[in-house]
Amino acid sequence: MTYSAPQTYEAILARENVARLKRAVAVLLIVTLIFVAMALTGLLDPQRFADAWPAIKQLSSEMFPPDFRRYHSWLRPLADTLATSIAGTALAVALSLPLALLAARQTTPHPIAYHTARVLLNLLRSIPELIMGIIFVAMVGFGALPGVLAVGLHSVGMIGKFFAESIEHVIFHAVLPQALPQLADTTIYRWEYNFRASTVLGAVGAGGIGFELIAALRVLEYAQVSAILICILACVTIVDGIGAALRKHLK
Hints:
There is one protein chain. The protein has helices at 5-40, 46-63, 75-103, 111-126, 129-140, 144-170, 175-198, 209-218, 222-250. The protein is mainly alpha-helical.
């Protein structure tokens, strides 16, 4: 059986053209889906933004300059928020490690344990922190504790999933020594996220600076709202900087 070079070249070219066409169709479908979603949500409606402009100007005039006169009363809530993020992340890591071993195919003792662990991780990841905060406030009362439980258990869903995947990737060499840098990296990223999440849990009575933010919003003290947001931004920036430094050190 013989074949000519031009025929082979034409076949390769045809396959490349088909692949390009498939990619173009996929991109077109994605772009269409994005524009449909933007249209359905009003993002492409200029009249909505035009109607909102007077309210934006009014709100901006009330938010600036920021009012820091009550800054001393925000120090303890900010400390509570930081403590909530640290304690919640520690709780998440402590619970995620054994769950990750059960959720990794190579380390799970039984398929039932594997699927049970995976379902549990999916469940914890699917419930928002605010919903968990409401549940835990009802269970243990107001304060930082329900915030710790909310961010901690919600984080188990994500941290446990990434821990399990990291373990599966390096299981053939050595589980913890090889996976430890990835586990630490995931933990630091989640701590940064937990700090940001902890700032809003005060909305449901879980303590922290979020409580002060919601209180200022309820009485329409927008100058204090902007001041609290600046404090939160400063703390988030510091936490992100610490996280980046820790990741650099671990590498």
